[in-house]
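Subject: design request, 352 residues
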């Protein structure tokens, strides 16, 4: 795959799939050739909306379409394992929405499938592909603020969400942590790697999902991360990274920022802003571009969103859920049946 357009298939037809399709349409070297839904009428309507040539009423049909170079999986995360696994087993490359899966066990199964079938696989963590976030990480890695001491990040929505909403439904992997908390956790681990230990507290809904969760992550270097997610209050969605020689503040929308400010001891603050040429801050084009770059280079994973980093985030999410007592239907004794930073103090869980 070199000069020709990368041919995309889209699996699912919800809001995030429409957002991604609209961004792909604007990329001259991308072509959406097929879409699939479990309901043929949904796939047909989506195809008509975006000018897509083939609409399938089953996931299997898309997975076995050999004219598709890569499938974007945009189902709710409770179905990621099944949908992405089906595509990988059929020989398709896959970009899978975040959170990558429901738990670590499912994530590891997808990675194993990708390796077994020699296919490309990447989590659609668009934050990691954002040019301004990549600039922020480069500054931190280059020592612009010294050794990282603390990371703070929050993501909360005002709600209220009724019990029937997918965010409250345990059968759909509901709760603040997986839908929203994946961003603060991924931000912290982008800068510091996987934590050595953590503790967490949550307020649970009557259905048994977390309405809001706070977590304190720690590293052997002495660094700490204070992270918060909520379905009960709209937060600033800000982030701050403090080091031994300065600080970086992302005032709002840290996972798709339009600016951040670098503060260094003894110097005037320096503001970094997004390049208008990169498109709107809500654009998902950068993750699509990274997938297409990797496919053309013959890579099986992206160095920007590496699979081990995705697995590390899933280990942390599993460990937080273990602390706060959230387990989804069908899970075994623990969320991911496996390792993770699990030696810290347990949570005090307060039912709502």
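Subject: RE: design request

Done. Sequence follows.
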């Amino acid at each position: 795959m070199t000069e020709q357009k990368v041919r995309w298939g889209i699996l699912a037809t919800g809001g995030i799939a429409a957002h991604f399709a609209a961004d792909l349409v604007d990329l001259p070297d991308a072509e959406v050739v097929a879409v699939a839904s479990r309901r043929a009428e949904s796939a047909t309507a989506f195809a008509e909306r975006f000018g897509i040539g083939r609409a399938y009423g089953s996931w299997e049909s898309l997975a076995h379409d050999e004219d598709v170079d890569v499938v974007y999986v945009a189902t709710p995360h409770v179905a990621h394992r099944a949908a992405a696994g089906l595509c990988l087993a059929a020989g398709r490359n896959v970009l899978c929405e975040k959170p990558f899966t429901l738990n670590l066990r499912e994530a590891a199964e997808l990675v194993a499938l990708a390796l077994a079938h020699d296919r490309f696989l990447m989590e659609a963590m668009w934050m990691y592909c954002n040019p301004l976030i990549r600039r922020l990480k480069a500054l931190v890695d280059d020592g612009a603020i010294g050794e990282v001491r603390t990371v703070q990040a929050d993501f909360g929505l005002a709600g209220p969400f009724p019990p029937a909403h997918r965010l409250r439904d345990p059968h759909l992997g509901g709760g603040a942590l997986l839908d929203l908390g994946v961003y603060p956790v991924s931000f912290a681990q982008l800068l510091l790697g996987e934590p050595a230990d953590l503790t967490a507290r949550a307020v649970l809904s009557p259905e048994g999902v977390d309405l809001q969760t706070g977590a304190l992550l720690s590293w052997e270097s002495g660094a700490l991360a204070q992270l918060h997610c909520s379905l009960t209050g709209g937060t600033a969605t800000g982030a701050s990274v403090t080091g031994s020689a300065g600080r970086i503040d992302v005032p709002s929308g840290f996972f798709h920022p339009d600016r951040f400010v670098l503060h260094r001891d003894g110097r005037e603050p320096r503001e970094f802003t997004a390049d208008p040429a990169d498109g709107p801050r809500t654009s998902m084009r950068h993750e699509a571009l990274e997938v297409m770059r990797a496919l053309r280079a013959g890579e099986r994973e992206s160095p920007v969103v590496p699979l081990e980093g995705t697995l590390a985030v899933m280990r942390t999410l599993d460990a937080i859920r273990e602390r706060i007592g959230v387990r989804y239907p069908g899970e075994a004794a623990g969320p991911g049946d496996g390792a993770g930073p699990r030696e810290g103090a347990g949570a005090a869980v307060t039912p709502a």
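The first helix runs from residue 15 to 25.
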